[in-house]
Specification:
The chain is built from nine helices and no strands. By secondary structure, it is mainly alpha-helical. It has one domain: Four Helix Bundle (Hemerythrin (Met), subunit A).
C-alpha cells in the first residue's frame, strides 16, 4: 500500500480518489499549501456549490464543484500523511467541514429539490446511514486501526463486531460520498426536469 493512503481505505478511495488526488500532492506541497489550507479550500468549494443549490442555479457547476471537492477532501489527508503534517486539529477540522457541508447539502437538497419527492429523499438518507453503519462494522472489525478522526471514533463505539469481509472492506467514506453525488445528480438533473 502507498504511504499516502490510510490503512482503512476502501475500494473507491484506494483505486480512484487517492491515486488521482495524489497526482497533485507534490504541486500543492511545493507551493506551500498545508493540509488545513486545503481543507478550507474544500469548505470554500462546497460552500459555493451549496449557495447555488439554495438559489437553484447552475446545476452543472454545482455538480462539478462537488466532484472537485471530493478530490480536495482526499488531497488534504494525502499531503498530511505523505509529508508528515498530520495533526489532531487537522483531523477535527476535516471532520467538521465534512459534517457541516454534507448536512447543508442534504438540507438544500430537501428544501429545493426533493421537497415534492420525499420518498426519494428518504431512500437517499437510508443509503447514507447504511453506508456509515457498514463503515462502523469495518472499523470495529479492524482492531489495529487507531483512528484520529472523531466520526470514526464515534462509529467504532457501535456494539457490532463482525469479521471483516470483502463487502465491508470495500465500503469507505468514498462510497458514502458517491451515494451523496448520486442523490445530488438525481436532484439537480432528474427531479427538476
Amino acid at each position: 500500500m502507498n504511504n499516502y493512503q490510510p490503512k482503512n481505505a476502501g475500494l473507491i478511495d484506494k483505486h480512484l480518489i487517492y491515486p488521482i488526488a495524489n497526482i497533485f500532492s507534490c504541486f500543492v506541497y511545493k507551493i506551500g499549501l498545508t493540509p488545513n489550507i486545503i481543507t478550507f479550500i474544500t469548505f470554500a468549494i462546497r460552500s459555493v456549490a451549496i449557495y447555488y443549490m439554495f438559489l437553484k442555479q447552475q446545476p452543472k457547476l454545482i455538480f462539478t464543484l462537488f466532484i472537485i471537492s471530493w478530490f480536495t477532501d482526499a488531497l488534504d489527508g494525502i499531503v498530511a500523511r505523505k509529508y508528515d503534517m498530520k495533526t489532531e486539529l487537522g483531523a477535527h477540522l476535516d471532520s467538521i467541514v465534512d459534517i457541516t457541508t454534507v448536512t447543508a447539502t442534504l438540507i438544500a437538497l430537501l428544501l429545493n429539490y426533493y421537497n415534492n419527492n420525499l420518498n426519494d429523499f428518504i431512500k437517499l438518507i437510508v443509503l447514507i446511514v447504511l453506508s456509515f453503519f457498514i463503515m462502523s462494522i469495518k472499523l470495529k472489525s479492524n482492531n489495529d486501526a487507531k483512528s484520529s478522526k472523531p466520526w470514526e471514533k464515534i462509529l467504532s463505539c457501535i456494539p457490532v463486531d463482525f469479521k471483516s469481509n470483502k463487502l465491508i472492506d470495500a465500503i469507505d467514506p468514498g462510497f458514502s460520498y458517491l451515494i451523496i453525488l448520486c442523490g445530488l445528480y438525481h436532484g439537480l438533473f432528474k427531479i427538476n426536469k
